[in-house]
Amino acid sequence: MTDRSEAAVWDQRYRSGGDGWELGRPAPPLEHWLRQAPSRPQPPGLVMVPGCGRGHEARLLAELGFSVVGVDSSGEALRQARELYGTHQPGLRWLQADLFDAEALAAGGLGPGSLAGVLEHTSFCAIDPSRRQDWLDTMARLLAPQGWLLGLFWCHGQSGGPPWGSDPASLAARLAQAGLACDHFQPARGSATSRDGTLREGEWLGQWHRASAPVLLEELPAASLTPPVVLTIGGSDSGGGAGIQADLKTFAALQVHGCSALTCVTAQNTLGVDRVDGLSAAALAAQIQAVCRDLPVRALKTGMLLNQELITTTAEQIAPLEAFRLIDPVMVSRAGAVLLEPDAITAFKQRLLPLADLLTPNIREASLLSGLPITSAAEMVAAAEALAAQGPKAVLLKGGGLAALRGVDLFWCDGHAQWLRSAAVATPHTHGSGCTLSAAIVAQWARGLPLLEAIHAAKGYVEGGLRSSLAIGGGQGPLGHWHRSL
Fold this sequence. Notes:
Elements: H1 4-16, H2 28-36, E1 46-50, H3 56-63, E2 67-72, H4 75-85, E3 92-96, H5 102-107, E4 115-120, H6 123-126, H7 132-142, E5 143-154, H8 168-177, E6 180-187, E7 203-210, E8 229-237, H9 243-253, E9 257-269, E10 272-278, H10 281-294, E11 297-302, H11 308-318, E12 324-327, H12 344-352, E13 358-359, H13 363-370, H14 377-388, E14 394-398, E15 408-413, E16 416-421, H15 433-446, H16 451-467
Helix pairs in contact: 1-4, 9-15, 10-11, 11-12, 13-14, 15-16
């Protein structure tokens, strides 16, 4: 029987529009896979969409030639689905039933081995995690041999729900134990922004088939995961708060594979920098070449480059790469400390700025590169325009160096300025926030987000890190890069 109290909760959510994470259309990663992926499921065949909600994916499957049953326990959801897509669409019908009520499903024509496929989008993340094994058992029971499961799973690493998150490795193991063999499972590309303005981060797209023989855990396709590869070129922070260390922590948190090429080694902690030793240009070039010779770098960022020789070498190495290039001009800290040797500034402007898909200076760096004073919002716009004229395709000028513009950044692209606002977080522990922001932008872009959406997502990640910043050491602590798992 349907759990009437739970169904009533969802009825109310659909009536009130309280399901802000519902997109109002098929999820882009699923639609792209169903229409264009070489290994996409092929019609005909009976397909179930559990927790179909307003029926967007069910309607898409019917359009593609499948016979589709949209199942939901919420009568209000199905009423809205019928209102949107009708009751007499060829190959499409609706069934109000509890997904775990075998008799109700069978009465609707969904018995053991009856399904050619299941499309999962929102039911797995909506049910209580304690019932996930029931969900897996139900899918395995309903699917015919070689029947497919295509799913978009939320692996956002946050507590609470719905939507409840999943751990990719644990999910893969449980699906294998349920007799489903993996054909594809990796971070989704092109995730959308929900109607409530929340970016749907942490989505993983997977396709499985019901195996004719038990799936051994040793056969799990861990090696088949192919996350985007990104590269950071910059300095090491022995205190672990900024530089290469902050970049790699950010990459890991955002589920991309991070590679690194060191330009210099610093001896520092939360109280300050004691020493900086630059590497040779040959050592830097060798690192970049070794990475790019083997790994498909989709996006990269530069950080602390220290001197003219390292700047020139970096420019020579990244110029031929077919990768998104974010240039973070680590020249002057927000506090005013100069981090670049004087003769290197001209080389930086001439060699690196023209290569930038995105330039991310702070106020002092933007003033140094543009030659303009920046004491107001209007002067920020003028400086961004002047910087873009030197070659970068886009500029993100960070306004945190001005007290009146904390949490406000300026995005300049194609001759237009746009102000990006986020909450200012009251914490003294902000070490590495600039490195983290640029690394997060690179990661989000590599995962398929358009540039402006990648910036918004990155700012949200940094805000979370500041809210969970680390009060360690005797000075300015770093961000909490793992805040999503708290």
